[in-house]
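Per reviewer request, we include the raw input and output of the structure prediction for the construct analysed in the revised manuscript.
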Amino acid sequence: MTIRLAALWVGAFAALSSFAGAQDLWIEDVAIVSPERSQPLKRATVRIHEERIAEVSQRSVKGKHRAAIDGKGLFLVPGLIDSHVHLYSVTGMLPEQEQAHPDIARTAREQFPKSYLYFGFTTLVDLISTPQEIAVWNAHAIRPDTYFCGGAPVADGYPMSFLPQPIRYQLMPYFLVEPKSEAAAPAGADAAAHAPAAIAARMKADGAICVKTFFERGFGASHDLPVPQLETIRALVQAAHAVGLPVLLHANSSEAQAFGLDAGVDIFAHGLWNWSEPAAGADLTPEVTRILRGVLDGKHGWQPTIQVLYGIRNLFDDAFLSDPMLAKAVPASLIEWYKSKEGQWFHDQIASEIGAESKLEPEKVVAVAIARVSHAVAFLAGQNGRILFGSDTPSAPTFANPPGLNGWLEMHRLIDSGMTPAQVFKAATLSNAAAFGLNREIGTVEVGKRANLLLLHEDPTQTIHAYDRIEKVILRGRVLDRAELAADAAPAR
């Protein structure tokens, strides 16, 4: 009898808990700022039911619902989307360094999903991943919604060239074998399985939402890397479109972006900072202007990723590791490791490579590239080009591309380059959602959309500093206290 009563009590408690968990969340008297609206919807009421927005209205329900947020004086906006991240590593650490410092690495891996959320990023797109790697990331209890692209480099080209053989073929399984080059395929590889159509079909079956390929001849100590044939990428684009996947091209040079225009890729994953023309300055050249007009005319997506360059420059900024903002994104133990001789390994490597080549200080070398991409951003923004928000976190094993904070910094670079706050807001919400086929799910504050939202103290279409004052992060209808997401948050009691 006692056992039965206990069982009934447990069942009743479970039913009550389930009912409480299903209770609608109401946000009352809030101003809705959403990219499809020309003006904020003031004094609005939003009802969230089972992770989705069930109602958007201006009817007053104030005080009628127990599970409610008073939105007076606040702005409700879609959660931000960073469409260019890499989640496989601890920022600034090599695999062998992670193994040597397991406690530091574990603490960092547990924090990084929260760091993205702290800065407002409720959706991420990892541009080079696999189902297995994404499954590890998705095992975190609190994390942004995350999607992935399959990386399709030509065999032994960038970025495979940075990985040792033969493991590179396992870590990047979607590599391309060029037509008429089957004899050069890696040992044991089925060339037919690495043709464009086969690769696109495999990515789709694996759950990828996009394809990323590469045109990169190399940099630093790596030069003369193989790049794809135009016919190969045209075939990849055709095959990817046949299964509903957009194609991104790693392309940071004028040569690469001209190639991408000819190939018909959908999105350029980087801005223009390497120019083929022998120009010493940063003013737009006729060739670069022609390429940018091609981007506009073809309505191609374009990710500036200016933070890539600052991720190099800030390695040489003595104040970077002491910035209080960094402590919000990165655990203290990892910051202390960055300051050590071992943690400065990438700083030392870049200083050696760039300094030896140019006879200049490394931070001055990237200044020209920063000015070039900034001018290109200003040109596209002035013509209402299809700029997409992506931070490339991390662009390299640099500690100066910290999760979450890197995206916040990228927003400020875009403003400095001539974009308006409203353009940045749209690039990080609706434009990104539409480019990756997610606009039925996220990107706006509308009925039926997933409830990935931010409550802010300022209107982000008017000031970029709105993202400094996030009140709450709402993830699939779950309300998260921003302060508790910070790396330096006090331990839960």
